[in-house]
């Protein structure tokens, strides 16, 4: 769906509901200029705004790649971040970092999260170079030892730690286990 298609869909639904642009803006919690920009295809609504537009107008704007998978799952189940964080017994900040894949998901909350979100979510962890370096130093290991254990070059480990190259997903879980990086 193009930005213009989204705009036409919003405009048609707004007119069918009998709302002015100002009324829709008030109901959705955005400025009237945002509504104008959406309807003309100048800009497209962000993820949360699309969800509010869907609810207010009774339409289905495709969410697409606008949000991380866990955020989409949470919102499709009707939870605010604060509500889900409270139910999981974690801070709102931690849940935000988990959704943005900036923090690991504590193992103890995965079963609770799966039950609340009615899914069988299996997390994939993204490990930063800085976290790898800190964990390696804390364990008293050098880059060569890590490289040998991972069957990669010492330069690979160095580039991961410096952030020159991202740590490939296929190595993440093994590194977490090897260095006992806490995810509890």
Note the topology:
Layout: H1 3-17, H2 21-28, H3 32-40, H4 47-57, H5 69-76, H6 81-88, H7 92-99, H8 110-116, H9 129-138, H10 143-150, H11 154-162, H12 169-178
Question: How many DSSP-defined strands?
Answer: 0
CATH classification class of the largest domain: Mainly Alpha
The unreliable regions are none
Q: How many structural domains in the coordinates?
A: 3
How much helicity do the residues have?
55-70%
**Terminal Cα separation, in Å?**
41 Å
Alpha-beta content class: mainly alpha
Shape summary: elongated
CATH superfamily of the largest domain: lambda repressor-like DNA-binding domains
Order of helices and strands: HHHHHHHHHHHH
CATH topology-level fold name of the largest domain:
434 Repressor (Amino-terminal Domain)
Strand content: under 5%
From the alpha carbons, calculate the radius of gyration and give it in angstroms: 22 Å
Mean pLDDT: 84
Largest sheet: none
Count every helix, treating DSSP H or I runs of 4 or more residues as helices: 12
Tell me which CATH architecture of the largest domain applies here: Orthogonal Bundle
């Amino acid at each position: 769906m193009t930005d213009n298609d989204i705009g036409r869909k919003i405009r048609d639904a707004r007119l069918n509901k009998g709302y002015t642009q100002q009324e829709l803006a008030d109901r959705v919690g955005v400025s009237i200029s945002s509504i104008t920009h959406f309807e003309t295809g100048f800009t497209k609504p962000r993820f949360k705004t699309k969800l509010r537009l869907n609810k207010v107008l009774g339409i289905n704007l495709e969410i697409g790649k606008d949000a991380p998978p866990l955020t989409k799952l949470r919102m499709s189940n009707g939870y605010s971040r604060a509500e889900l964080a409270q139910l999981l017994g974690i801070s709102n900040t931690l849940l935000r970092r988990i959704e943005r894949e900036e923090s690991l998901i504590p193992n103890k909350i995965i079963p609770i999260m799966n039950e609340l979100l009615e899914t069988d979510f299996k997390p994939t962890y993204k490990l930063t170079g800085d976290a790898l370096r800190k964990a390696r130093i804390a364990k008293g290991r050098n880059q060569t030892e890590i490289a040998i254990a991972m069957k990669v070059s010492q330069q690979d480990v160095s580039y991961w730690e410096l952030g020159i190259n991202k740590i490939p997903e296929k190595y993440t879980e093994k590194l977490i286990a090897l260095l006992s990086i806490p995810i509890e």
